[in-house]
Amino acid sequence: MNFSGILKLSTALTSVIVIGVAAPALAQEKAKTDSELSDQAEAKTDIVVTGVRGAVVAATDTKKKSKQIVDSVVAEDAGKLPDNNVVDALARVTGVQIDRARGQGQSLTIRGLAEVQTTVNGNNTNLGDGRSLNLADIPAELLKQVDVYKTRTADQVEGGIAGTVNVELRRPFDLKKGLTVAGSVRGSYDDISEKVSPYGSLLLADRFDTGIGEIGFLVNASYTKTNYRENYIESESPFEVDLANGSQVVIPYRAYYGIEQGNVKRPSINAVLQWRASDKLDFVLEGGYLGSREKRSVERLYVQDMPFVGSLSNIVLMPDGRTVKSATYSNATGIPAGIDTQYNNFHSNLYTTNFETHFNSGIMHLNASAQYNWSNEGNYFVETIIRPGTLTSANIDFASNVYSKGAPSISFNGVDLSDISKYVVDRFQDNHGGSKNKEFSAQADLTLDIMPDGLLRSLQVGGRFNRRVTSRYYGYRDGFPRVNGTYAPLSTFPGFDSASLVGPDIGGSSTEWYRIPGSVVMSNIDAIREYIQQYDPANATRFSSVYPPSDNGQTFNSTEHNFAAYIQGNYAFDIGSIQVDGIAGVRYTNTWGKSVSYNYRPGDATNGYQDIVQLSPGFGNYFDLLPSFSSIIHFNPKTQLRLSYTTNVSRPGFYDMRPFYYAETRGTSPVVYAGNPNLKAQREHSFDASAEYYFGRGGQISVAGYYKKASGFLYYSREEASASELAGYGIDLSQYASGVGYVEQLRNAGDGTFIGMEGTVQSFFDFLPGILKNFGASLNASHIFKARIEYPYPEDFPGAFDSPNTSKWTANATLFYDTPQFSARVAYNYRSSYRMGIWTTNPEYSPYQGSTSKLDAAINYTPVAFMTLSLEASNILGNDVYRYHGSQELLPLGVRTLARTVQGSVRFRF
Fold first, then answer.
1. Does residue 221 register a pLDDT over 90?
2. pLDDT digit string, tens, across residues 629-651
3. Segment 51-99, tens digit of pLDDT
4. DSSP states of 865-877
5. Which of these, 154, 151, 177, lies nearest to 164 by C-alpha position?
6. Of 71, 609, 729, 850, whose CB is crowded by the most CB atoms within 10 A?
């Protein structure tokens, strides 16, 4: 980071500290103004302005009154969640763990499980051929609140064994009568990209009475652009290698320096019309759009194929005596190493519509709704691999001191990376893919009030129908430009004039290399296609079209139907002075559908050795019964105990279930690479208990425990297949002397068990004198005692059955200060290490991410009732992400830098 960047960041952070120190004193001096502002705020009936205290109180009330175990994040103001997107905000919620990348939170788990369902205003919402919505694409500016349901009731849509994240958007009847105008403008400075990211939103709403009842409309629009840059040095995929002396070592397949940078633009809008015809009847009509446009550049200097090509010398082992710490990698004819430049254009478009009607008449309450959503997502990708001359040798230290905890360092022998005249082009690739989805849902729910003072207070019944039509397309092509049988000089490649030096800024690394920027490659794509046709005639036909031809193995069309019906009762009774109430119900769900993809196998002399391609259909039909029971024991108005038993399912992805297969029949043993239409849904049974004590305004002390048993976890593997199984793929095993064949695909593995506890302590200090009563604090922590999945391999090393993406510890600590004129927040988030995935070739060396932490701070100042100024800083301590191979840290995997940010904003409301 240059001096200008340091100055900007330090000035902003100093401002945060100064304002934070001054806020209590200023608040005391302006007590009269505060009182006036408070009176104005309390006079309103809307929820546009809540402040820190109001947001905390609203989230606590949601938790206390819910029939399920739920935690919420409520917007402090119009367009003001505590963080910039939904995922970052949910990191503050007990039991939620998130991953951060490219400047923002990207994905999350709930209580150690990643199979999270997403709903918008309670309606199941999906993007493309996925089973959920990308929460990172939902801007904070649109939201009223976000709820994390850790248990479910029979009336809720099934679909996620981890839980459900419901995004609640604003509606006009949430606001005061009359015209409401609110919005925000902010800019966020990133100390690695050294760019400012702009964000803006505008809300227009009105409520008014007419001769046909009360009518309200609302339009809420947002535009955000997030710039990011991350530097990294990493290795991947350790393999076992037999050395010439008879010993065996483990060495990564690849090591690389890298830079990932770009920007994400997210336009969005939501429009709502509400009509309350009478006290008994109302209607809602709403439509929305969520979009995303990302341009992502990846630059890497790499060396690979170390376990398979060439020779290893000067080997130094880690303390375990088995894992290679450093070595010289050589091959007289050239080692597979070079410079990899990638550029990806991503896009997604989600359009949603929703109609609701609610009728209440005495003891009967009828709700009906229908949704029609359509979406598409996809990308176009270009990649150029170049080499700085002939590379015959490299020194690699996988645990060098380039980073404090260890990271790979690479040095090429006999090559000058600064001499661009020696650079040549090895390969060019582009690919194009995406998916589409059209989805219709309709549901009706009837509630009958039975006995206001009896055991069964009300009875609910309902049904839901859903139909999805989804498809995916994908194609790629490779070009290998050559001049007189050798690599083409880089100087001949379109865009060469824009070649420049680049390298990561990490620790002591000073390595730089030449490349043509990916954006330049993308802008010259027409010229590059002509270039490949000229210098690689064998692939000229494939590069004659604008986009690559389809890869049938990754292409499919699917239609899925689902019908669900439920019945549940709300009950209540007293045991002496103790009131008990709850819900008991069961949901029946039936899913059926079909999918069409392709199968293919090598041809023979009769067809010129062309692949034989055929349509490949698949069908499925299964049902589930999902009982649920919850009980809340109210010891007094402040103290209660929740007990629940719930069940849920997560359906397999459409891509994983596609009926594709490729039968490789030319070897001594046939191998089938296939999708798996027979994948079963993942199912879970959960027992939960939560003891809760509520006090004051937004105060709570709660302790929760859970036991989850889940089945059907997925694992990709190659397994020996029976003759009858291979016959289903058109293979006669008796024709092979080996008598052995294999099928490689995604499969359902064993069961999983998750046991954990959560705790929250939260309060504003209303009992303290003077300005101290404006302070508050929140502490929460979760610990997972057991997160184990029975994978189909021996448990012969520590962590063999660790669940991926699951940290044992997560904790949050937040200090608040809140008055109507000033508010401040300092928040700390911690997540312990976790397994990132399973390296199926050698599970003992699966990748792990080390513990992460993040310190944020924010100041809000409201000089007049209609305007708030904010200054915020995130990742103040500049913590990076460290990763390693194996639960015992057998070898450093590497490091990835995360930026510190400072942002200023103006919010207004009238």
1. yes
2. 999 999 999 999 999 999 999 99
3. 788 888 999 999 999 999 999 988 875 556 667 788 988 999 999 999 9
4. TTEEEEEEEESTT
5. 151
6. 71
What residues does 191 pair with on adjacent strands?
Answer: none
Residue 412 contacts residue 394 (beta carbons within 8 Å)? yes
Quick count: other Cβ atoms within 10 Å of Cβ 45? 9
Alpha-helical (H) ranges within 665-803 are: 723-727
Q: What is the dihedral of CA 389, 390, 396, 401, to 10 degrees?
A: -20
Q: Is 16 a residue whose pLDDT tops 60?
A: no
* CA angle (416 as vertex; 414, 421 as ends), nearest 5: 120
Of 680, 785, 706, give the one whose Cα is nearest residue 151. Answer: 706
Residue 381's CB is within 10 A of a number of other CB atoms, namely 20
Pair of tokens at residue 560: 């899925």
Amino acid identity, position 41: A
Show the tokens assigned to 448: 């009958």
Q: What does the alpha-carbon distance between residue 679 and residue 411 come to, in Å, rounded to a whole number?
A: 46
**Model pLDDT for residues 477-499, shown as the tens digit of each residue:** 999 999 999 999 999 999 999 99
**C-beta atoms surrounding 52 within 10 Å:** 25
* Phi–psi pair at 730, nearest 5 degrees: 80, 25
Counting beta carbons within 10 angstroms of the beta carbon of residue 129, is it exposed (0 to 12), middle (13 to 18) or buried (19 or more)?
buried
Q: In degrees to the nearest 10, what's the CA dihedral of 721, 722, 727, 732?
A: 100
The token pair at 186 is: 């902010």
Residue 601, CB half-sphere, CA atoms under 13 Å: how many? 13
On whether the CB atoms of residues 569 and 599 are closer than 8 A, the answer is no
Per-residue tokens: 576: 């002496």
Q: 418: how many CB neighbours lie within 10 A of its CB?
A: 11
- In this prediction the pTM is 0.90
Q: Could you tell me which of 11, 291, 25, 343 has the C-alpha nearest to residue 142? A: 291
- Both tokens of 192, joined, read 């690695």
* Measured distance CA(563)–CA(265) in Å, rounded: 37
Judge whether 94 and 108 are in contact, CB under 8 Å.
no
Q: Is the pLDDT score of 456 beyond 50?
A: yes
For the record, the structure tokens of 252 come out as 């990564």
**Distance (Å, whole) CA 499 – CA 437:** 40
CB 466 within 8 A of CB 440: yes
For the chain, how many residues are written?
A: 910
- The tokens for 659 are 């009926």
The separation between CA 77 and the C-alpha centre of its own chain, rounded to angstroms, equals 25
Continuous segment of H or E residues that includes residue 589: strand 578-601
DSSP 25: H
Type and span of the H or E element at 347: strand 337-361
What is the residue-averaged pLDDT of the chain? Answer: 90
Q: What is the largest CA-CA distance in the chain?
A: 95
Phi/psi of residue 541, nearest 5 degrees: -65, -40
> What mean pLDDT is predicted for residues 785-812?
93
Task: In whole angstroms, give the CA distance from residue 663 to residue 553.
Answer: 11
CA separation for the pair 863, 59 (Å, rounded):
26
Classify burial at 537, counting beta carbons within 10 Å of its beta carbon; exposed 0-12, middle 13-18, buried 19 or more: exposed
- Cβ atoms of 681 and 622 within 8 Å: the answer is yes
* Spatial CB neighbours of 182, under 8 Å, sequence gap ≥ 6: 48, 77, 78, 79, 202, 203, 907, 908, 909, 910
Number of Cβ atoms within 10 Å of the Cβ of 76: 26
Structure-block tokens of residue 666: 């030319």
Q: What angle, 0 to 180 degrees and rounded to 10, lies between the N-to-C axes of helices 31-43 and 3-29?
A: 90
Distance (Å, whole) CA 425 – CA 480:
8
Q: What is the DSSP letter of 496?
A: G
* Cα angle: 66, vertex 69, 72; to 5 degrees: 75
Strand duo 741-748 + 104-110: pairing: unpaired
Residue-wise over 467-496: b if at least 16 C-beta within 10 A, else e? ebebbbbbbbbbbbbbeeeebbebeebbbb
